């Protein structure tokens, strides 16, 4: 199960946009929806009224949807959860989602989030993967999270999944804080690449790479027009380049080649 939630855990809407893209790319089918009356303060997340295609005015309520897709390469069932961070009854909310997951045979829960960070938009977006499960860490080469402090619904859901004996891990994309306004297609793209690695699947990317390139070009233009932002970006670039290995490491090249092969095989019906 892959789960992402709008709100505090979703800087630049990067996580929820990644799951929305995956839902469309894999033609997922919605199978369930949580009753928003139980979990949302409608003065915080207000319903929206609009006119539909038939000219009828309808109200759309804040919701959490559960959909099912099939990985095109392995045929593995993937459950997609897309919601808004609830205002209340978080434990009941997580239990309801995990009950649905258990009924669908889910054994692994992956929460997906995005946070604002001091990273430059000109470099690859970091996507950190952590797990509370020692077996998962050993199998995937992950680390335990060292974060301590306030948590969001993704942290609670991951913890509750682990308490049930499910395998659980969390993905976090770092969105440049000086361009926090959504969308953030470069971060969504980085999340999808990480999901490809975890699942061993190919995800059709459509126009997302072009959107990411256009986003970066737009921020480049902004940095070029504002000397303070430009200087700050250069400081972040220098700090990142000093602290990390070059992007074109052997591991990075191998991962990119594996993604290319999966897409080629899927495109040829392999």
The major β-sheet equals:
7 strands, mixed
Q: In what range is the share of β-strand residues?
A: 15-25%
What is the first-to-last residue Cα distance?
25 Å
Q: What is the averaged pLDDT score? A: 90
Report what the structure shows.
With 270 residues, this protein is of the alpha/beta class. The chain contains eight helices and nine strands. A seven-stranded mixed beta sheet has the order 2-5-6-1-7-9-8, sandwiched between helices. Helix 6 packs across helix 7. The radius of gyration is 19 Å and the shape is globular. It starts with a strand and ends with a helix. The relative contact order is 0.16.
Write the layout of secondary structure elements.
Blueprint: E1 2-6, H1 14-25, E2 29-34, E3 48-51, E4 57-60, E5 64-70, E6 77-84, H2 90-103, E7 108-117, E8 127-130, H3 134-140, H4 153-163, E9 167-176, H5 185-199, H6 208-225, H7 227-243, H8 250-267
Parallel strand pairs: 1-6, 1-7, 7-9
Antiparallel strand pairs: 2-5, 3-4, 5-6, 8-9
